[in-house]
Write a structure and sequence with these properties.
By secondary structure, this protein is of the alpha+beta class. It has one domain: Jelly Rolls (Sandwich), CATH 2.60.120.10. It is 20% helix and 45% strand. The chain has three helices and nine strands; from the N terminus they run αααβββββββββ. Strand 8 and strand 9 form a beta hairpin. The longest helix has 14 residues. The mean pLDDT is 94.
Length: 176
Amino acid sequence: MTETALDLFVARVRDSWGTLSCELIANCSTHLAELLRAPATDQWRADLIHELPESRELYRDPVHGFVLLAHTETKNRYRVPHDHGSSWVIYGVLQGEMEMSTYSRLDDAECGVRLIKRGSTLVRPGEVQVYLPGDIHDTRCVSAPAIQFRFTSRDLRQETTMIRYAERGGVWVPGA
C-alpha cells in the first residue's frame, strides 16, 4: 500500500513527540507545513477539496492524544478571541486565506479583565501559525472557501481551562 502525505505526517509527529519544547513545536510546524503540500492525488486531500466539510477529523493519536482536524470556513466566518487552555495548537492553511489576530490579557483594578489586540497575521496556503498554552487569538476567513488544519496537542473537547471572550461595549472580556 502506498503511504500518503497524511501517513507520513502522523509517523513523523509520533517519532518527534515529547514534552512541549521549542524543538517539538518546530518539528510539528515543519511536518504540518509539509502536509499542506500533499499531492493532489492523495485521496484524503482530494476529498477535502471536493467535499469542503465544515469539520473533519483526519487523525487522532491513540497513544499521545494529539488530534488533526480539517475545517472549511466561509468568507467572513469569525471565531471570537479564545485560548486553548493548557493545550497548544498549530493552524495551517490548505486553501484560501485566514486572518489570525493575537491579544494580550490585562487585569487591573480600574478596568477589570480585558483584551488588547497585539496584531494580526494573514495566513496563506502552505503557512502555519502556532499558539502556545494561554495564547489568545481569533480567526477570520478572508477568502472562501478556506480549508485550514488545526493540529492540537490533545482533544480540545476535554480541555476545561479554555476561555472564550465576548465583546461588551467595544471591549473584549471573558465570558463568551
